Amino acid sequence: xxxxxxxxxxxxxxxxxxxxxxxxxxxxxxxxxxxxxxxxxxxxxxxxxxxxxxxxxxxxxxxxxxxxxxxxxxxxxxxxxxxxxxxxxxxxxxxxxxxxxxxxxxxxxxxxxxxxxxxxxxxxxxxxxxxxxxxxxxxxxxxxxxxxxxxxxxxxxxxx
Length: 160
Hints:
Elements (H helix, E strand, L loop, with lengths): L1 H9 L8 H13 L3 H13 L6 H8 L9 H6 L9 H10 L2 H14 L5 H21 L8 H13 L2
């Protein structure tokens, strides 16, 4: 059944969805246990710029049960207006695995120039604390390491 549901979702014309349809998809997004179906619904939300889905997508990204299945969800946020969720992306850079961390960094690059001083200071504090932790606990300082992403995020937010 999951394969057929996925195919049906792939066949949806996102532009033909009514508000009621979008709400129904959002309810299905929240309860489905299938990663492929969840990702496809998130991509539909991205295509139609359904900003109402943002907090629900972020909640799924942060769900520990989905830790290894959340990169596509972060990617789906790229077309949505997520500027008010900047700190969430800082947390993702600090705590997620490579794929969601990379996608979150892309969102930081997009929104860093427009953040307020207050958000900038909060983000830098979080990143600097994480950098200190990684300096002590993480031997990997290579280009794809958590340490490197945190270091580059600090530079980005500082405007350097």
